[in-house]
Amino acid sequence: MDIVVCVKRVPLTEEVDLVIDEQKKGIKKDQLAFILNDWDNYAIEEAIILKEKYGGTVVAITVGNEDDEEVLRRSLAMGADRAIRVEVSDISRFDSLGISKILSCVVKDLPCDLVFTGVLADDDNCGIVGIMMAENLNMNHANMVTAIEIEDGKARVTSELEGGLGEISLIDLPALITIQTGINEPRYVSILGIRKAAKKELKIMNLADLGISDEELSPKTIIEEVYLPPETEGAQMLTGDPDKIASDFIEILTKKGVME
Amino acid sequence: MSEIFVIVEHRLGEIRDITFEMLWKAGELAQKLSYTVTTIILGHELNSIVDNISDRADKIIIFDDERLKNFNADIYKEILSGLIEESKPTLTLIGNTSWGMELAPCLSVKTGLPLATDCIDIMFKDDKFIAQRQMFNGKIFSNVSFAESKECLLTIRSGVFPKDKIGDRQAEIIQKDFPLTDIPLKKNFIEFVETAAGDVDISQAELLVSVGRGIGEEENISLIKELAEALGGVVSCSRPIVDKNWLPKHLQVGTSGKSVSPKVYIAVGISGAFQHMSGASGAGIIIAVNKDPKAPIFRTADYGIVDDLFKIVPVLKEKVLELKKG
Amino acid sequence: MHHKVQPALEHYIGIPGSVITLFILIFGLALFFYIIYRRYLLLRSAKPDLRFDSLYQRFYDLIIYGIFQKRQPRYLWIGILHIMIFWGFVVLVLRSITLYGLGVKAEFILPLMEGSIGELYHFFKDIFEIMVLFACIAAILRRAISKPARYEFKHGKAHKFHAYLVLGLISFLMVTDMAMDGSGILLGEESAFWLPAANSAAYLFNGFSQNNLKSIFLWNYWLHILTLMVFLNYLPLGKHFHIITGVFNVFLRKLKKGSIKPPRWDIENIEDLDSLGVEKVEDFTWKHILDFYTCTECGRCTDNCPANTVGRPLSPMEVTLKIRDYAYQSKPLFNFKRKTNSQDQGLSLIGNVIAPDEIWSCTTCGACEEECPVFIEYIDKIVDLRRYMVESGMIPKDFQDALLRFEKTGNPFGKPPSKRADWVEELDGVSVKILEEGDEVDVLYFVDSYASFDPQIQQVAMAIVKGLNKAGITFGILGPRESDSAHQVRRLGEEGLFQFLVEENIEIFKTCKFKEIVTTDPHAFNTLKNDYPGNLVVKHYTEFFLPLIESGRLKPAKSLDNEKIYTYHDPCYLGRHNGIYEAPRKILASIPGIKIVEIKTNRDRSFCCGGGDINLWYDIEEEEMRMGEKRVAMAHEAGANVIVTACPFCLLNFDDAIKTSGLEGEMEVVDLMELFMSTL
Question: Rounded to 10 degrees, what is the CA torsion of C146, C150, C152, C156?
Fold first, then answer.
């Protein structure tokens, strides 16, 4: 079972007040810490679980600059066999389609039974790249998968649907699967583990190697402007007698669409 | 005249709410810009579904075929791309749901149309459409436009638009035959399963009623459970409640518990220590009930009620139940 | 003293007594040394350890804790009984040698034992024999009647039979020796001294015929030396191995309290190691294996373990015993079966012998190690087990998240480092210098993560800063350049991350000049002092401020005008691990008008608040109550309204515990510095 996993390095923003950059096209990143995208962490883990069960290899790929290699090393430490980075100094000049094209170009030359990506990335929250790759590569695909079993050359997958329902389907391999969080419990990799993984192969390719021209990658969606969510100043207090408060309360819930 | 496509999402014979929400937005834009709204339904035995939306669109295109009984992104893509090629709709709206997120990207590649996902609004400015969406889990908003393209695909986040009818339309119904000649199914639907029934995952809940130590006694927890039930939400809690074994650990929100991102987070009797609040930072809005006006939670909450929770919660619950009956 | 009967000269079915004695001696000692050799093999297969430094200190400790048994009377009565038995053994060893000698050669006598010295020895021996017999009987009765709970096992049956057997054997040895002496007196032996035991026995045998007396003498002689040999061979099989290993274990004890052992003593760069930590028995150091041999099953560790007290699955004693039982079982003394590889390899301890939650239950408070009469170490072993779990990915998700945040942001909250000094802005009128490269100050105030980011602990940092300012100290903080002290990280077993954070901090320390470091947190204080390389001068704020208060540079201006009763809770890493008990008490007492009580368990018997190490990120499911609640109840019982502490984690844990115990309004917790500064 040869598996390719596409991973991305994203900023850790949970506790951070983000600041918009001068061009208003993105956020200031110099103060931020970066991690392996959470969904991709699950994807790597799932690939390694399958490898441990059925043998084969796991290759981790990312598109980015040297700093982004950090997530490949983490993937290698978790148990991936090889890693590939496509050298791109600034990935923000591509849209999801562009990234999916680059990744597809790498994957098409690799032997693989399965391609995993995370459902979405924690930074742009787009959730496009995986399925676009499947279409580029003319591969079968399944989205938001929370369980995978391999049965006679096919994958029995459970896709998460809304409202606590799962959809089970059987897909022929090779296939591309986008991995949802919670599918497994990603193992911890220690700092020592990551340092030791430095010995594993990490190949760097550039766009020229892949034969992709910049024109092919010109974005079709353009971020016009990014901005902070409309300001709220502390809590707006609901006052009055309990009856009035309850009515106001319900109005808010209705507005937010959580009450019918 | 320009056209807006809305792809109907339905499951087990029922229209999903996201369809009505997309139709509302499509209707609103159509009214403003004098466009027409076309809905496309793929499926099998679709009469009740069609009836439900016939007064919300100008045109309903129906592909009714045994082979469309179950959702399949590849078949949907093949049929829809043909249709889009033919009609060149300015906007094609798809739900930002599990299915929609599988359909939209491959449809985008197939048709060559740009795609913006998880949109929370669509604006028409300076002669072009702008999609408003969020990044970094809602910490940043972004406006997205589409280069050189008059047409685009958009997936719409659930719950951001009303489900109401807008404007007055009467749909022309067009039945179409299954256009594809024999595609071998490489992905076969097996069945639907209830996932983790009883084992609630608070990180996935849309409405959380969260309880903190202000609740005082274990038996008072039932008060919160009843409110959550009335609202159709899920109960969660802060650490002291778990410490006392009043609620199980998997319901705990916070640094040592789970991070949640409901649309609405109702915090009852929670003081709002940041270890707790960091777990609730993904919430759409936070409504806090606490008798201490200086409780830190009021700094992060969107709405606050300074009062005894035992006064507010029962009244609120009664009101909600009344409303549901009426 | 000359014996009238000479066992060496007796014949039994034609065999001379001397041959029988020699047979018993040779066979018994051969078996004994074979057993010891087998035990030694396991010790030798273990990892290196560094235990022969500071010899002066070691000999000193050997006298205090080994010979004088200083820790025994921490449990007063049984401690005294033990000292009696121990000293009895020391004295009786010469007698035993003499007895075997007598069996080989008639009229055998040890050098120097001729004449009055021998007589004097005989007198002491006689007295000690009575003492030992009395102590053994008292110990048997105590076990049988009052059934102390600390001898019970949590997970399985206690080895109580062994205790009775050994006490019985010792008593039997005493009785047979007394009977020998008693019959000897009646047979005409004389002594210059009063021999109460021998005389009492003689009194009993009074009127027996010479022949009977001779048989009594001989029977008791043979039974005695046979029993002694059985006893000797029995020692290495169970808890009484400590009679042999105990002194060595005390001599080889860990001297640097508060520190954590490096992953390996013989390999400096952890990247050169194939694996980290302890998976199997052989992965422990040889000293830690000796610990397992030495455990006396007295249960004092478990009795004082806060995790055990609140119903967590951990019992330190049983951790030792489970590993010992497993080690003995997997390395049997007599292996008649053909060796198989799997038997040699041994199982992974984690999950098979020790459950993960036992390992995570420990707060590294050190109560067990403080109590152990033979200095068995627990924390290093627990951390070594954790190290293995961390390296093989076997750690709960909650820790993973926390560790990832440590790695990425240098604090457990995932807060951006740039905000680390934001709390300073809330101070009005007090300026805090954020040290840049090349800056020079007297004091580097190491704030650490909780005081930097947790709003409640920020108040403590503010009090410290105000104190420094008021006392006219030139000081600075590192602000955004400070990383977490990594105390927790090391004790969680993430050694690589610990070293990474240490390097970060050390590099930053180098950029500015300071004379000493002052910390908010006893944990940071401990790790900077005991874990960091380079012998930094580190003081906890209590140590730093006491001289300033005593010299009047900081002087409380108003007295506490309340009726509250205060008590000081000793944080583990200030007290037990670093011996600072008095500085905080003196600061507290310097506040005019303060009323202070002590909690019953104070100073080195302080009860952990729940800990800062892992408790905050991981819940042990099996628990009856939180440690904090237990400690708050103790303070409440002592009659205190206010718990004063000097550790951020104690503050947070007690604050929670007071609320969950429903004592809000009745009890409160305050940091010592905050309290002190409020009186200026």
Answer: 180
